Amino acid sequence: MSGISIGYARCSTDKQDFEANRQILLDLGVPDDRIYVDHAYSGTNRARPGLDQALAAVRPGDTLVVPKLDRLARSVPDARQIGDSLVERRIRLQLGTMTYDPADPMGKMFFNILATLAEFEVDLLRMRTREGMAIAKAKGKLKGRAPKLSPTRQAHLRKLHAAGEHTIAELAELFEVSRPTVYRVLERAGATTSTADAA
Q1: What positions carry a catalytic annotation?
Q2: According to the model, what pLDDT value does residue 3 have?
Q3: Domain 5-116 homologous superfamily, CATH
């Protein structure tokens, strides 16, 4: 008796990306109710609930179908670990239209090449991100997080504090920020708070 096909894809939060990967799996013969997906999970993150469910669903003789290897793993060790575990469980791995056969030297080499390319893409993306951040920082375009309160609201907070009619807790509630944020605004302005005021 031939096994069944279980589909897996790692998708972004973009609905279009999900639909495209789902359609690929359907075209490859995977039933709609046998498709498992991880949304917004990095391929370098091995702890993925959708992947865990797909791996738990396949049985000896079944086929795990993924649109491309980089949907399954983004590092060579992870790809090999998943591939080897499937082989041990007598589960076939189908990458797009190609079925991975570990007993075939050419198939094994092709699998390793795909895994290396997937890892290379991740490393390249990280390098480009670091370079982009370095350039932005050099141009003064990369700044820290924007303050929770605008300069006008900060001035208003300091004015109310100076009047001595509100506690720190009341100011935090009034401006909808945390007490540490209130303290930071006052410290930047060189303001001091009494013990009674901080209560």
Answers
A1: 12
A2: 83
A3: Resolvase, N-terminal catalytic domain (3.40.50.1390)
